[in-house]
Design brief:
Helix content: 25-40%
CATH class: Alpha Beta
CATH superfamily: FAD/NAD(P)-binding domain
InterPro entries: FAD-bd (IPR002938), FAD/NAD-bd_sf (IPR036188), FAD_mOase_fung (IPR050562)
Number of domains: 1
Protein name: FAD-binding domain-containing protein
Largest sheet: 7 strands, mixed
Cofactor: FAD
Pfam family, one: FAD_binding_3
Structural class: alpha+beta
Organism: Apiospora kogelbergensis
Length: 490
């Protein structure tokens, strides 16, 4: 008898894993999602910056209005040195908005167009808490799809079968499917176990040893959420730059979040350590003088009226202390039965806000290919009278080829993005004298910034969308997208 197990097992229920769930739902492909945490939606992690490429893909799920409501648009970023002295503002997000804003928006049920240059059409980059983004994505799933999201499911092993894969969990449960998608982060269990799926160790030992880690850690990050204190306006964004450490700070309607990136004495590939409350307190004692925002209510040691990290720490609501891994995994799949997306395949420092957005685009490219393969397999299965959910109708060789093509499409883009993100962190933390010079005297120049963005816009315009989800493209501006969202059929 053919199996009726879910066709695809998703491991990892973060924003990228939830994007997979939405995409498979739209594609009509059955799935189950396994999340190791006790809840799918919970207050974990700092805020995320959603850029045009991520927002455009998510807009195809109909969630853009809800994301806009739960997030804050980004504009001008004020920059300080460690003493609180201004070192010039940067208009990166303003220029991005200018390039991607809707210059013409078609009015529903009308042949007329209206000019528009506001944030209300989802074209500005936006900052949103991880929990709020997860809530938006969870709420938008159909009830049947949301019932397939299973928390408290920690993966213990993967086993290849004749027609698919079995994912076993530490609680004794197991889940069968044609393939497994690892969306489970930098220390991916899928990546760890997929090398031994067939019962043999990969020649390079990929994933077979906890010490054999693909990412390099050069920075660690302390992040904190605290109330929006008097004198702080929603939408405020600042950075403090200087030797060994840099901050990024965002304020929303009811709270603010800051991340401090500190350069380690030596880069390491060792597994991450768990930082204690004492480690956190020592970190804040060392960097508590870093300025976060202009504020007449506070004055630092230099007599400059700014809110400092230490003063904000006294009002903390939530904190975290983690290592920041960087790199791109060499192989993103194992045969035709396991494939990686997001942080499981590539990890960026958070400085450019590119990590989550690139993970979403991974899903776009991968699920476009899966949609074609599964649609063909379903047609063949139905014509032969077999059960629709039969995993054996999906040829492993065809899946393996699709996974290789997916990696080829994405590899150079994420490698470039990872390098740019790491250099941005190094420049802001004055990793070298040259980095300090570039930060203070070159990268803050509007002409240089505009030149860089023209180059980036040409590459960004190539970003794909889900080619099987019809709808209106609401993120349209001066630089047209090469890949158009399919228009609804008449």
């Amino acid at each position: 008898m053919p199996t009726t197990a879910p066709k695809i097992v998703i491991v990892g229920g973060g924003p990228v894993g939830m994007t997979v769930a939405h995409a498979l739902t739209k594609a009509g492909i059955d799935f189950v999602l396994l999340e190791s945490r006790p809840s799918i939606v919970m207050a974990a992690g700092a805020s995320l910056v959603m850029s045009q490429i991520g927002l455009r893909a998510l807009s195809q799920f109909g969630v853009l209005p809800a994301i806009e409501k739960a997030s804050t648009p980004l504009s001008i970023c004020k920059r300080f040195d460690h003493l609180g002295r201004t070192i010039g503002d940067t208009k990166l997000f303003s220029y991005l908005h200018e390039k991607y804003t809707n210059s013409m928006i078609r009015v529903p049920s009308s042949n007329y167009c209206i000019a528009n240059t506001t944030h209300s059409h989802g074209c500005a980059s936006r900052v949103i808490t991880r929990r709020d983004l997860m809530q938006v994505l969870f709420d938008a799933l159909p009830v049947e799809a949301s019932s397939k999201l299973l928390p408290n499911k920690k993966v213990s092993s993967l086993h290849k079968t004749d027609d698919g894969v079995v994912v076993k969990c530490t609680d004794g449960t197991s889940y069968e499917g044609a393939l497994v998608i690892g969306a489970d982060g930098a220390y991916s269990a899928v990546r760890k176990h997929m090398a031994t799926m067939g019962g043999q160790q990969d020649a390079q030992g990929q994933g077979g040893n906890d010490e054999d880690l693909p990412y390099l850690t050069t920075y660690r990050c302390f992040w904190m959420r605290f109330p929006r204190l008097p004198g702080i306006a929603p939408g405020d964004m600042t950075e403090s730059h200087g030797p060994q450490a840099t901050t990024q700070y965002f304020a929303s309607e009811d709270s603010a979040v800051v991340a401090v990136y500190e350069r380690l004495p030596q880069p390491t590939r060792r597994p991450p350590r768990r930082y204690s409350d004492e480690d956190e307190a020592a970190f804040v004692a060392r960097w508590g003088h870093l300025p976060l925002a202009d504020n007449p209510s506070y004055r630092n040691a230099e007599g400059i009226r700014v809110l400092t990290l230490g003063e904000a720490y006294a009002h903390r609501i939530q904190t975290g202390f983690i290592n920041l891994e960087e790199g791109v995994v060499a192989d993103w799949s194992r045969g035709g039965r396991a494939v990686l997306v997001g942080d499981a395949a590539h990890k960026f420092t958070p400085s450019t806000g590119a990590g989550c957005n690139n993970g979403i685009v991974d899903v776009v490219v991968l699920v476009n290919k899966l949609h074609k393969i599964f649609a063909t397999a379903a047609a063949v299965g139905n014509s032969s009278g077999s059960v629709k959910n039969n995993a054996s109708v999906v040829p492993e060789e065809e899946l393996a080829a699709a996974f290789r093509e997916y990696q080829e499409v994405r590899f150079d883009t994420v490698t470039l993005g990872c390098g740019l993100s790491g250099r941005a962190t190094g420049t802001a933390s004055w990793a070298t004298p040259w980095a300090k010079f570039m930060d203070l005297y070159v990268l803050s120049v509007d002409l240089v910034l505009r030149y860089f963005l023209r180059w980036a816009a040409a590459k960004t315009a190539l970003t794909p969308v889900f080619d099987f989800i019809e709808g209106e493209d609401t993120v349209v501006g001066k630089y047209p997208w090469v890949h158009k969202i399919p228009m609804p059929q008449a």
